[in-house]
Amino acid sequence: MLSQQELITLFKETRKDSEDICSYLETEDYVVQPIVDVSPPKWHLGHTTWFFEEFVLKKYAESHKLFDKNTAYVFNSYYESVGDKVIRTNRGNLSRPTVSWIYEFRDYVTNSMLELLNNKDLDEEALGVIEIGCHHEKQHQELLYTDIKYILGNNPLFPKYNEQFKENPIQNFKKDWITLGEGLYEIGHKSDAFCYDNEQGVHKVFLCDFEISNKLVTNGEFLEFMEAGGYQDVLLWHAEAWDWVNEHTIRSPFYWHKIDGEWHTYTLNGLVKLEPEAPVTHVSYYEAFAYAQWKGMRLPTEQEWEASQDQFEWGSRWEWTESAYSPYPNYKKPEGALGEYNGKFMVNQKVLRGGSVATSARHTRHTYRNFFHPQLRWQFTGFRLVK
Amino acid sequence: MLSQQELITLFKETRKDSEDICSYLETEDYVVQPIVDVSPPKWHLGHTTWFFEEFVLKKYAESHKLFDKNTAYVFNSYYESVGDKVIRTNRGNLSRPTVSWIYEFRDYVTNSMLELLNNKDLDEEALGVIEIGCHHEKQHQELLYTDIKYILGNNPLFPKYNEQFKENPIQNFKKDWITLGEGLYEIGHKSDAFCYDNEQGVHKVFLCDFEISNKLVTNGEFLEFMEAGGYQDVLLWHAEAWDWVNEHTIRSPFYWHKIDGEWHTYTLNGLVKLEPEAPVTHVSYYEAFAYAQWKGMRLPTEQEWEASQDQFEWGSRWEWTESAYSPYPNYKKPEGALGEYNGKFMVNQKVLRGGSVATSARHTRHTYRNFFHPQLRWQFTGFRLVK
Amino acid sequence: MLSQQELITLFKETRKDSEDICSYLETEDYVVQPIVDVSPPKWHLGHTTWFFEEFVLKKYAESHKLFDKNTAYVFNSYYESVGDKVIRTNRGNLSRPTVSWIYEFRDYVTNSMLELLNNKDLDEEALGVIEIGCHHEKQHQELLYTDIKYILGNNPLFPKYNEQFKENPIQNFKKDWITLGEGLYEIGHKSDAFCYDNEQGVHKVFLCDFEISNKLVTNGEFLEFMEAGGYQDVLLWHAEAWDWVNEHTIRSPFYWHKIDGEWHTYTLNGLVKLEPEAPVTHVSYYEAFAYAQWKGMRLPTEQEWEASQDQFEWGSRWEWTESAYSPYPNYKKPEGALGEYNGKFMVNQKVLRGGSVATSARHTRHTYRNFFHPQLRWQFTGFRLVK
Amino acid sequence: MLSQQELITLFKETRKDSEDICSYLETEDYVVQPIVDVSPPKWHLGHTTWFFEEFVLKKYAESHKLFDKNTAYVFNSYYESVGDKVIRTNRGNLSRPTVSWIYEFRDYVTNSMLELLNNKDLDEEALGVIEIGCHHEKQHQELLYTDIKYILGNNPLFPKYNEQFKENPIQNFKKDWITLGEGLYEIGHKSDAFCYDNEQGVHKVFLCDFEISNKLVTNGEFLEFMEAGGYQDVLLWHAEAWDWVNEHTIRSPFYWHKIDGEWHTYTLNGLVKLEPEAPVTHVSYYEAFAYAQWKGMRLPTEQEWEASQDQFEWGSRWEWTESAYSPYPNYKKPEGALGEYNGKFMVNQKVLRGGSVATSARHTRHTYRNFFHPQLRWQFTGFRLVK
User: Fold this and answer.
1) pTM
2) Where does the record place the Sulfatase-modifying factor enzyme-like domain (chains A, B, C, D) (predicted)?
3) Which residues on chain A place their C-beta less than 8 Å from a C-beta of chain B?
4) How many angstroms separate the Cα of D300 from the Cα of each of C88, D186, D231?
5) If you average pLDDT over every residue of chain B, what do you get?
6) Complex prediction ipTM
7) Chains meeting C at 3+ CB pairs closer than 8 A?
């Protein structure tokens, strides 16, 4: 548990990071929502701010005056138990409040929070909610990157976000495979540092022998799968995946473009030639699974990943696992609105482990459980194999 | 036909008007597209500019350099024969080009056009296309008003566009009904002033006796229909209208809101109390028809409207007619891309006559044929009755 | 107006005809509904029977006992004002009542009707409703043919309905074009024989000079259009038509199949080779319009068709006209449920004139106005040209 | 492994059972497909027959003549690797082949199979495929019951299938809860009797302490949840479940009807009053989960169910578990078309354990893994709780 002083540092750094990420944007980039999974950047900035006003200031800062009575309605995301909300598909239809209004709202709430944190001794519950609020904003920082990438990468003009942004690290690892023996392993978050409810409840699992790859699958390897007709071989795919591949004419990872016979990929640094040694990214679980089938291997379960992760490097991609997102044994959903944070998504989603180039510095750990629907590709998703 | 000098005046006035309309907007307001029928204001500004570059400068200004090679793709609307285009539903997903880029594009093309108009004697064909380009931009000015109204009126914050904007003129007419006798009437555009292809081909029609109302149906009258259960009486509605009413739970004209028991309506001047003496607006053809059924009357045909229009005042609302949008006898579709302007819409739409508070000063006449799908309501649409 | 005795003959003949049409079916053929526009044959048999029980027996046969209290619910089609109904898309999901139950229901109602007609002097109103009931059933006989054709022609086994059924008459006409001069013509139903409300109200129209083809466009002519790339040339199509062509990959008239390089067409007599001299059929209005554009001609209006029809042969195809389906001047919608018969469809549909190989003997006349949505093709629809 | 003689018995019994189930149907009941999840009974009868002709007779009966070359196309279900198939949604649109044709097809294939089985010594592979074919047909027998129930229960006339059919057994158990201690348990199919690939690969799992209910949740208990507002309390539901509840206005288990203030349920024996002591059925996973949340308990995992099942009675309902359908460790997908049997469904589905009143006598076992999407309700699905 962080001290109040440490929390002030975390809070300030977090608030600043969100604004730094957006500093490369034009006003127009803050507004649009090209697909339902993407939110307008201005919405992320407002929503993370609303969280602090709704769950901290309203409760713990007695004399706090709301910045505006309509903010809750506009910036609530999915807390069904906290009043009405703008339906998700409508976010990109709202030109107001404006970007400059939102920055004023941010400043107002940041200052009110700092006044509270600097002048009042807060109890554990309050400190806990503030810490969650910081981690919540860090999650949205990752979404800011991926949503901005979608907004710009979906544009026929392929504008650059930031020329300095490096997306495609090459992996130079000596070792190929890591072996673990069958037996009992402990899974779940152990320290008293911050974690989400879905990581809690340390428990044993029994794993069979397995070998896990030290390297993520690369662009070059995935290209071999494509060239071998992987997207056309029904026997490699789940039934729902096959429908998806055909309905959307999926023939390559997302953001790949063949230009004059050569594969390029859109990155936050603009369109670049495909780097064969870099880990493949923007693939769905379906594609990761089909690739593994083609290699005669499989994806790791999240337990296998967690048990072996200290032996390999990770952090450049969120990695798909074979595991469906389910509660751990003895999972306890928090009371009240914050109970909506994780538990209600525990169906029809796959767990991802790791972290990506878009992940905030302090925002991943080996027990972190990310989750997405199996067909989604706009996150920085890759995968490693198990045999 | 306008002289080249008159055309310069028309062109300059037209270009300025579009920018004046947008001068009340925030940057964010230029970007969004809340429904497919609405286009982002920045798209209108770019598209009307692209029209002059594509159809005039490329052809008649030999040394013209394109402002940017990607503009055609982004700003083509429906000219299928002029290359690819951004599909209509995707317009609101594009944050780039930015608003300031578009204003630079406008300036560049306006200046190039003026240079051409001031320095070269243009032939009739060229002058004709430029005149169409001005009228085309005036059409988009009307759409700018209605699309801006939708963008702001759809926003839960109901921002005002312009406090000075007057939407709801009251009609103080002595006479109620105007009578025309049966006989032959001439329909179609006769002078050699500008008109669209769909107005051409003067021809005779035989009309039976009819009486047409001097006044548009008012808000107060429409409220009586609502209170009499008009929206619930299946026998008043077309079959497709009844499905529409029920699927969308239509219970009042668009932009009407009942607040604390009192009817309000969103206008470009913000939310205001309903004015019972003002003509009703933002009704679909379906609603106009149902109202007429309920009164035991009917809507005029476009021929009846044109034959009688010089006896009544019009211009505050586009008026629904009973007429489907069809070609006049001997209708000739122009050759080439401009042939796509009108003819291809001549199915499943209803003709509107008149003009509205959003219509540009020189942009209506008694032969003008506007047309929309029968369920649409975001235009300033009203109606008058015939018995 | 028919005498009661003539009506008995009409009634008996009509009831028998429906059953004769179905005598070629297997029980399973009575049940399915492959698209929403098609109704299961058993539904047609039940619905036309329900009409007589609901609108005649219930009102005029005092002691009539309903065959079954649930029939109204199952067999009501679109009379919204007469209680609930099975929604149209659900008709093909109902295995009960069975076919044999429906034949019992038919016998019961036919006998009750004959008892009424033979034993009681009915007033004009009653006789009028019975005559409508007969014509209503004749309309459904045409739908029986076209729906049966869809049911069998949609089946990958292409079963034959009846080996004797002749669909494709060849036209051997000397004269090509018929000329009419400009002037006033009278339109509408004049005799006191039966007609629908939408044909009534004789009125004058002024027509310009035109020439109308003596022949319907043939399969061979339409094939030339296809081979000239007609389906790929955007400038020939309405905007909505172009979307339809591309969304459904329309490349030929409905029921055409290219087998081993040769065009075949499914008919009620099974798959046969395309007959180039026979009139083309199963084309939409959109395709008829595009063909006319390609020929530099146009479709007739319904007034032109009616004014010239006595000079050409018709009756092998329903013919698309350019006219939208609208009320005639002074159209009066009947009171009550029967008022739902025609008027409520007068939007977004095109008028067809003529009659087809599926039309019942006494069920067409030169004032008859059929109507369908412009994209529909399962009727026996063809067209002739005007220049 | 069954001997060839035992297999003959199993085969004959299986073929007869399918036909016995259908013996209560009218011809029309064999044809319809009211929702995509339901197949027409005649399709089940044909498909299970096609399986034997495609995978056994074609391969092992050298001189076998196909009954009809089109059967494969019509009766293939999901074996994408075995040629074209009728898309699932189109099954209910096919009136041909007729029911009597299908019975001839069945007789032909049954006789050919018996000739093969009686006159040739088959190798293990062949015997294995035939055994799978029998179990495959038993699976379809269960679907026959549930699909017939949907076909009749969806009909507004609520026809009875069979007056003798008992759906709602009452549970009279002394013990309420069964306790298992933490430790290693073995999961998976051990004997050499028949099982599917997805049950194979015996492996250890570590389970924490848990208590599992001896009884399935009853209608009466579920009614308490309904009356306490369970369907209206967002905090009890998954996010996707909440959307589902609201989009489809779900307010009770499927087949429940409130008539004159009293709850009834449609059963294969017609509409009956709700039996409070019988286990609830036709609930989705979402509803089972929400009920468990409301009770402060949870659903068992499939491992917990398998580890404890020998201590409780089961078999009257398929029971939802918390487990997503995933491969067991070391799962091996069979080669070729039969490899499509199970593996390709291992995403977005939940495992069910147990068996129901519709399950064929020899067609369940404690390792059997059924699976459905979480929102489906037309199977006989219930649940028990864990705390």
Assistant:
1) 0.94
2) 175-307, 315-387
3) 26-34, 42, 70, 73-74, 86, 90, 92-99, 151-152, 154-157, 159
4) 43, 16, 22
5) 93
6) 0.94
7) B, D
